[in-house]
Design goal:
The chain has about 250 residues and is of the alpha/beta class. The protein has helices at about 15-30, 40-50, 50-55, 65-75, 85-100, 110-125, 145-155, 170-175, 190-195, 205-210, 210-220, 220-250, and strands spanning about 5, 10, 35-40, 60-65, 105-110, 130-135, 160-165, 185. The chain has one domain.
Length: about 250
């Protein structure tokens, strides 16, 4: 697997098939790992926070969820780079877990969204073993609460844990629990809402064109406008400088 550093964080030139093979291999061995599904938001949160940059760079796998990162990998010398998008990676991994008999779990969202999500997934994957699901409260957990959750996940025998807490909360949570939870943790963000059917996804043509952010901004302006206004222009400027430096150093 080839990787590149984009504005300070490592992004891996992976694919759905490659990511699934890695996750299943780790899960079958009962290893404690975490996978970050990265967008421009991850990159810029990491740019602004050395602590979060460390968390992103210490992830066992960082997939290019957003098209700007796919284009970034291609511009930095990985011409075959493809998108590995959280809402599409989730069913790929669920199918692989179903085929391998690996128990899965879900951590995040609200109780209502989680109930809808599980109902849809059990219909779509009738042999899937969903051994754990929990919608945590929207507040920091006390140490004893956290320890109880860790114990429940371990007793449930979960080998792949999907985490839907949004960035940067989910990556911080996974990093804090690597070595404590014997499962592969995958931060899939809004995938819970999309797969549950409670939020619309951008049309495929907008996703392929890198315009998914515009669709999401139009559907959730009050929640997302600050993120996109702050991060997108700065990312474009910083990455343009990085590409220019790369081309000059490569003699291109």
């Amino acid at each position: 697997m080839t990787s590149r550093v984009i504005v300070g964080i490592r992004v891996d030139g992976t694919s759905y098939q490659h990511a699934a093979r890695r996750v299943i291999s780790w899960a079958r061995a009962g290893e404690s790992r975490y996978v970050a599904v990265a967008t421009v938001n991850n990159v810029m949160e990491a740019y602004d926070s050395p602590e979060f940059r460390r968390i992103m760079n210490e992830a066992d796998l960082v997939t290019p969820d957003g098209m700007p990162l796919v284009w970034g990998l291609r511009l930095l010398g990985i011409p075959g780079a493809t998108r590995v998008y959280g809402p599409d990676l989730t069913p790929v991994l669920l199918r692989a877990a179903e085929e391998n008999g690996l128990p899965v779990g879900f951590y995040g969202a609200t109780p209502e969204v989680l109930a809808l999500l599980l109902a849809r997934l059990r219909h779509r994957f009738p042999q899937i073993r969903i051994n754990y699901a929990y919608a945590p409260p929207f507040r920091p957990l006390a140490a004893e609460e956290d320890a109880s959750i860790v114990g429940e996940i371990e007793r449930a025998g979960v080998r792949i844990l999907f985490v839907g807490l949004s960035t940067p909360k989910q990556e911080r949570w996974m990093a804090a629990h690597r070595g404590r939870i014997p499962a592969v943790m995958i931060g899939v963000g809004a995938a819970f809402d999309f797969l549950a059917g409670v939020k619309p996804q951008a049309p495929r043509w907008m996703q392929r064109s890198g315009l998914e952010w515009l669709f999401r901004l139009a559907t959730e302006p009050r929640r997302l406008w600050r993120r996109y206004l702050k991060h997108n222009p700065r990312f474009a400027w910083l990455f343009a400088k990085q590409v220019l430096a790369f081309r000059l150093s490569s003699g291109l």
